[in-house]
Amino acid sequence: MLTQKLIDTLLDGRLTDQQTFVCGNYRGYYLLLQQVYGKAAPYALTLHAHAEHDPGNASLAAQLNTIKLASKNLKEVEVGPYACTLYLQAATLKKLVAVINEIVPQITSYLETGNYRTGCANCGKEADLANYCINGWNTYLCSDCANEVAAQLEENKAYVQAQNSNIIAGAVGAFLGALVGAAVYVLMYRLGYISALGGLVMAVLALLLYEKFGGCLDKKGVICCIVILVLMVYVSNRLAWAWEAYDALKDYGWSFTDCFRDLSYILEESELTGSFYKDLAIGLAFTALGAARKIIDAFRQSSGSYTMVKK
């Protein structure tokens, strides 16, 4: 994740790089640095700490929010009873290291003064700890909590796999959600851009409304949403091109409906068929790029599958 040179300068070189995350013990407290998606900032720094005199880490939360107000790079703070996570943003990894070197010593000084201890993220136990990667999220757990989490994941897997969605109702919901994304796609095209934004909106709303209308999001629901996404990207691209054709032909008596219906003829006559399919390919690629993470997560959740690896 970081170069060795940056690792050597990160918190006095106390942490080690594990390729996809950084972890270690700094001044008696376990730390984890990893990349995240869908949060206010792309880097999550988790610090394991708790104290008997601070149930739920309420006082620690107040201290962290004070630090947050003074730092433009600290975007969000999440505090649990045995661990806290800081979501950081920085222009470069070198800047990220500098931010961590500034913030973490402040926090650990507060923890030392308050006699906070480090331990398991679930129960606070200080012995028998190991780092576990659960669905891409790294955390320190004791063996008892690790077994409990594994049992819960298995139970959830069995529950999810027993669900069965109403594909007709779900498809209606996915189509309605994709329509909103199609509108974004066409509007962006009118502004001169083919972006991943429309595809991302399509994917998020299609999956969300499929689950809402269909009762749950199972594997066939995710596949249904993918089919609808591909179709809607095609329709969006056709609408955008029909709009362009209408702008050029409306003075000759063509309506928008005429342009949409006869677009293939217009493209052939104007020798723009290749350009149309080029834009379609770009639109599909950008949609895949923008929605890939969401779709992959949806597939995993729809089957109840999980990964839990002891590092």
User: What is the helix tally?
Assistant: 10
Written as H for each helix and E for each strand, in order along the chain, the element string is HEEEEHEEHEEHHHHHHHE
- Separation, N- and C-terminal Cα atoms: 16 Å
Strand content: 15-25%
Helix content: 55-70%
Helix/strand/pairing category = alpha+beta
Q: Reading side by side through the largest sheet, how are the strands ordered?
A: 1-2-3-4-6-5
The number of strands is 9
Low-confidence stretches: none
What's the alpha carbon Rg, rounded to whole Å? 25 Å
- Which geometry do the CA atoms define? elongated
Summarize model confidence as the mean pLDDT.
91
The major sheet is characterized as: 6 strands, antiparallel
Compact description:
57% of the residues lie in helices and 16% in strands. The protein has 311 residues and is of the alpha+beta class.
Task: Give an overview in words.
The chain is of the alpha+beta class and 311 residues long. The strands form two sheets. It has a six-stranded antiparallel β-sheet. A three-stranded antiparallel β-sheet has the order 8-7-9, with helices on one face. The chain contains ten helices and nine strands. Strand 2 and strand 3 (29-35) form a beta hairpin. The model has no long low-confidence stretch (mean pLDDT 91). Helix 2 runs antiparallel to helix 3 (93-113), helix 5 (167-190) packs antiparallel against helix 6 (197-214) and helix 5 (167-190) packs parallel to helix 7.
